[in-house]
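Reopening this one. Same input as before:
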Amino acid sequence: MDDLSPHHDSADVIVVGAGPAGCSAAYHLAREGHDVLLLEKATLPRDKICGDGLTPRAVKELVDMGVDVSGDDWVRTKGLRAHGSGTTVEMPWPVVASYPDYGLVRARTDFDHLLARTAVAAGARLLEGTQVTEPLVDAATGRVTGVTARRGDTAYTYRAPLVVAADGASSRLAVALGLEQRRDRPMGVAVRRYYTAPHRNRDHLEAWLDLETRDSRGRTYMPFGYGWVFPVGADAFNVGLGTFHIGRGPEVNHRQLFREWIARLPSAWGFDEDHATTALRGAPLPAGLTRRPQYTRGLLLTGDAGGMINPLSGEGIDYAMESGRMTAETVTRAVAQPTARAREEALLRYPEAVREAYGRYFTVGRLVVHALNHPRVMKIVATRSLQRPVLRRFVFKLWSNLTDPHSPDALDRVITALQRAVPAA
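Same output, byte for byte:
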């Protein structure tokens, strides 16, 4: 898909990062007729640390992009099978009129490659193996006018009046403009490993709520988080866990926690060294809008670069694809304006659109993370929430962010009321 060779090139919009956020933005921008340059530091396909699970929110974005999700490369999930303190329950995906009633699983190695091909088919130009090093900033105006990058040992310059930062949690572009991660937002850590094993689960995401470990004083406690087993296809499984905290948080040894947790799983499932196909790898999860504003001086932040990760579930793919689409919609509205001032005013509305979409839910999530980081509270939730049908349905709807504010369903009304009662993040 590499079709560019010059040291200098220009576009209407440069998108940095060919993950779900960048590919979604590039696809929708190209569909609207913009000349889009999509820059990716790796060569696709490439691995990405992730749980690989897609909620119905992400499925909707895929379908809207025209992606065929009917083939054997996808694992279709009916809902969540949750485990905690000896209790196991199956919960179907909440029925919400605006979303499909199923989820999907597909390894990110293949998933991101598919999204990149979809963006290219829509008209985006993709450059792989291109490490963006910094934004180009006009000395007179302070605006971003492009990026510098390296391909091997060669430096390149790419220019555009607008740049989309979809370059992940560390976001070199955001940091260069002084947009550091906020410490008062939830920060997670996830680790995962692939196995080829005989475990029979084929149609549910599985989650374990009762993770236990020991602190530096040898005391047993339960951090806020969960372990997962997601079927990727054939006999392959993505097995991992993640925790969230705010501020300093507990000192969790995630590798140790992973070993302790899988040791408690049935040995017949085969999640052991003999069946492992990769090493255990980890990644940070900046959640709850950790960077603000999401637009400044010609740079728009989308996906993980803006901290658009669910602080309760750690899910980021759906918010990445949604925010990529919102980024494209913002740019399209802006460039249609008749004056430079009107265009800038349209771009400045992007952070408000992000807050409108996610701000109140992420605030609720932040409050829940704060509460559940008290080990006693987390233990009560892990041991009792699955035993009460109404409570577990409430927790699942909140966890997955699948509610309908216009539904007569009592739980939807409660969750909607909760969000209306808090300020947007």
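So the earlier flakiness isn't reproducible anymore. For the record, DSSP finds eleven helices and 22 strands in the chain.
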